[in-house]
Amino acid sequence: MSVKERIEDLRSELHHHNYLYYVEDSPEISDYEFDQKLKELEKLEEEHPEFSDENSPTVRVGGQVTKNFATVKHNERMYSLSNSYSKEDMEDWVKRIRRTIEEDILFTCELKYDGASINISYENGEFVRAVTRGDGFEGDDVSNNVRTIRSLPLKVDTKNLPEKFDVRGEIVLPFEGFSKLNAERVKQGLEPYANPRNTASGSLKLQDSSEVAQRPLECLIYGIQAENLSINSQYEVLSTLRNSNFNVPKEVKLCKSLNEVFEYIHYWDEHRHSLPFETDGVVIKVNNFTHQQELGHTSKSPRWAMAYKFKAEEAITILKEITYQVGRTGAITPVANLKPVQISGTTVKRASLHNADQIKKLDVREGDTVFVEKGGEIIPKITAVDFSQRDPNSTPTKYITHCPECKTELVKEEGEAVHFCPNASSCPPQVTGRIQHFISRKAMDIEGLGGETVALLVREGLINNYADLYTLKKEDVINLERMAEKSAQNLIKGIEKSKKQPFEKVLFALGIRYVGETVAKTIAKSLKNINEIVNAEKEQLEKIDEIGDRIAQSVVSFFKNDENLGLINRLKSYGLNFEIEESENKSNKLQGLKFVISGVFKNYERKELKFSIEQNGGKVTGSLSKNTDYLIAGDNMGPSKKEKAEKLNIPVIDETTYEHMIK
Length: 663
Ligand code: AMP
Ligand code: ZN
Description:
Blueprint: H1 3-24, H2 31-47, E1 71-73, E2 83-84, H3 87-100, E3 107-113, E4 116-123, E5 126-132, E6 138-140, H4 143-146, E7 164-172, H5 175-187, H6 196-204, H7 209-213, E8 218-225, H8 234-243, E9 253-255, H9 258-271, E10 279-286, H10 289-295, E11 305-309, E12 313-326, E13 332-343, E14 346-352, H11 356-362, E15 369-374, E16 381-385, H12 428-439, H13 451-459, H14 474-477, H15 485-498, H16 503-509, H17 517-527, H18 530-535, H19 538-542, H20 549-560, H21 562-573, E17 594-598, H22 606-615, E18 619-620, E19 630-633, H23 639-647, E20 652-653, H24 655-662
The structure holds adenosine monophosphate and zinc ion (ZN).
Adenosine monophosphate binds near residues 110 and 112.
């Protein structure tokens, strides 16, 4: 046997035993034998670097060092999941689905593993790259570290899988490994880690992969992304991946009804503590991929999946003091400062009390013994007071009447639960907060300027509002702390460049209460320019999709304010965009026509197709009716849609025909 053959034999043997040991938990050879084979392979690889392979079983022990993790764009965006907390939430979700899907629906239920999300790309059956979720669009390349995770196959049998695919999973640190790691740290005189989830995601960002190899991380797989997938349901995906040696937990159930889904939820709510790893809920997915495509995504998450979060864990502690924070919109948040307490593995020192009504409702007072609840990412909250422990001399909490920062008398608008400091123009945290919001990445995205510098510029009296940014000169900032010629120049350049930001970003940047990124986009698209928005009546705003009473009212009040109008006029004079740039493809060719779109398209995301139809004067509706003019069908369209279109005599066209219509 040649050296090359021996190396290849050892590699495939070790991959196999590794799988038996770490995934199947049923080893066929002793640890000693395994180590002997691994040592032999290491030696041969060292002597014959010409046969090196970055997916050899020897990479499991680490050794590669990553100084800077490269940013990599995901092939497919990694979405979040919508959350639900009750039976009613779930029923509402299914009702929403029912508006689009008439056929029977199956649900796949899985556990929601609590760790760090990861996207792992394979080509020709080989691991090529592992990237963290990051912001969903791009993440960090942590391949060297992920290669050390033994339950993740580096080579897979591609019999049932396409040539190129990405798997999605969660990297977790099981409880047992976590406590061992902590025991070890304590022995070395180091501070123990707070919880398995943060330790798992922290591990992925260690520079030295041999350190990562010491940590018994696991990679639990729950999904796949690929172009030519012959599989057509989530449940099948899970079994196919399991059969291809991926570590897909077996606690999966295919359910025919919501009742069956609840059985699963209740069972795991009770039994999850016996699982080897941390979970924070259940993920329910519409099983059929054609259904999934018809449902599509919102701006943040798929409509076909829902996380059901288990009820948070609770602890008892003492409320030391209530303090008050002022946000950028002037909203006051009362904060409970607590005697530090451990909840689900993290130390909790503060909890939100929300507003005056909440304090009154709970009758919570300084010095009280309180119940604190915390779940996942949610800010801890106080759920109740233990009245048996209350000091008989205590008096009810008096909510503040004046702003803790600027001493202005607080106001509370009708129908609102929150108090506000009305001194928008000179209350320090509001002034700074609004400018910080204005420059943030999703708003004006001013490069070279950060939150700290904004605070400094305000403190130094160089700016008082966001319009002032555009009058800054290099000479003004160059003498500030930690500024130099280069950074001052970059700051001014960044400000100048931000003038190019599109109108919807500018609208979001203005910081209108309740007008988030998505709402700003909706309003901008609908009313096109600032004058329309300034002059819009409340009723007119409420007619826009997804704009309710509260948002409409807030927009109207914002533009009634002379100070705000003054700022906008100044921004206009500096050349910021205050109207939507019309796209070139606009026409009236589809005027009066109603379309339904279904399936997957080659040249368009469904959103884009919808936008294109609207740009050309047409309308898109969700379901077929006798008023529908055309059904545009992509791949994988549901059979029921097709039947219905035929019954109603609605022409079914493909995307090429559509493109001709708008030419
Ligand atoms: P969230 O971060 O709360 O929006 O939840 C979305 C994350 O849940 C995803 O990015 C996944 O990493 C994670 N997750 C854990 N278990 C699952 C599962 N079984 N299916 C889908 N996502 C899961
Ligand atoms: Zn104030």
